[in-house]
């Protein structure tokens, strides 16, 4: 998957602080490898109410990936409405990432995502377009797991260290 570049950038900070460089955001995501201590996934229930859960994501080739078991509210919500938001608290930078969760079924892509999880200590195996594992992933319910990928459509970055700032990017 090619790394997308923003097509639009807006400074949301009203105090005169310059925009946050997209390169800083991309580097932070790649350095963290998607293992920031706090990732939250917001989905929408069929009746329109929000649903938010912590998820273990990995950042692979410009997209967040995560898993959901068959009985989870997350999976049920995504089957009804793929729009979602992932929020990230990272060193010096908080992010809000909007996109659509797409189920990954390509076995080569699934293996790349499994390898990213394995580098973080969880070792799923790819079987028949899903992940299987001996141990449950936090928040994912029991295996087998569907794997989802969220390519950013809109990202808002909020600087939490000098020089602070707030910027929105659209892709």
Descriptive overview:
Keywords: Oxidoreductase. This is Pyridoxamine 5'-phosphate oxidase. Pfam families: PNPOx_N. It is globular and about 50 Å long. The strands form 2 sheets. Strands 1, 2, 3, 4, 5, 6, 7, 10, 11 and 12 form a 10-stranded antiparallel β-sheet that branches. Helices cover 19% and strands 40% of the residues. With 171 residues, the chain is of the alpha+beta class. The protein contains 3 helices and 12 strands. The model has no long low-confidence stretch (mean pLDDT 92). The two termini are 14 Å apart. It has one domain (8-170): Electron Transport, Fmn-binding Protein, Chain A (Pnp Oxidase, Chain A, Roll), CATH 2.30.110.10.
Question: What attributes does this structure have?
Answer:
globular, alpha+beta, Pnp Oxidase, Chain A, 12 strands, 171 residues, 40% strand
Q: How would the global form be characterised?
A: globular
Let me know the CATH homologous superfamily: Electron Transport, Fmn-binding Protein, Chain A
List the total number of helices: 3
Query: Order of SSEs, N→C?
Result: EHEEEEHEEHEEEEE
Q: What does the average pLDDT come to? A: 92
Overall structural class, as computed from helix and strand content, comes to alpha+beta
The share of residues in extended strands comes to 35-45%
Low-confidence stretches: none
Rg is: 16 Å
The biggest beta sheet is recorded as: 10 strands, antiparallel
Q: What count of domains describes the coordinates?
A: 1
Classified by CATH, the class is: Mainly Beta
Reported by name, the CATH topology is Pnp Oxidase, Chain A
The CATH architecture term is: Roll
Counted beta strands: 12
Percentage of residues in helical conformation: 10-25%
Cα end-to-end separation: 14 Å
């Amino acid at each position: 998957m090619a790394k997308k570049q923003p097509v639009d950038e807006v400074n949301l900070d009203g105090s005169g602080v310059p925009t946050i460089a997209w390169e800083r955001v991309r580097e932070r995501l790649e350095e963290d490898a998607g293992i920031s201590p706090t990732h939250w996934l917001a989905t929408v229930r069929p009746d329109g109410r929000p649903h938010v859960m912590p998820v273990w994501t990995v950042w692979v080739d410009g997209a967040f990936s995560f898993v959901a078991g068959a009985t989870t509210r997350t999976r049920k919500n995504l089957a009804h409405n793929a729009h979602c938001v992932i929020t990230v608290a990272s060193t010096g930078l908080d992010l809000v990432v909007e996109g659509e969760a797409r189920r990954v079924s390509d076995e080569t892509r699934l293996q790349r995502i499994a390898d990213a999880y394995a580098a973080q200590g969880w070792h799923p195996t790819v079987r028949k377009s899903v992940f299987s594992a001996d141990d449950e992933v936090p928040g994912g319910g029991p295996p087998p797991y569907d794997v989802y990928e969220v390519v950013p459509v809109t990202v808002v970055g909020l600087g939490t260290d000098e020089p602070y700032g707030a910027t929105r990017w659209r892709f």
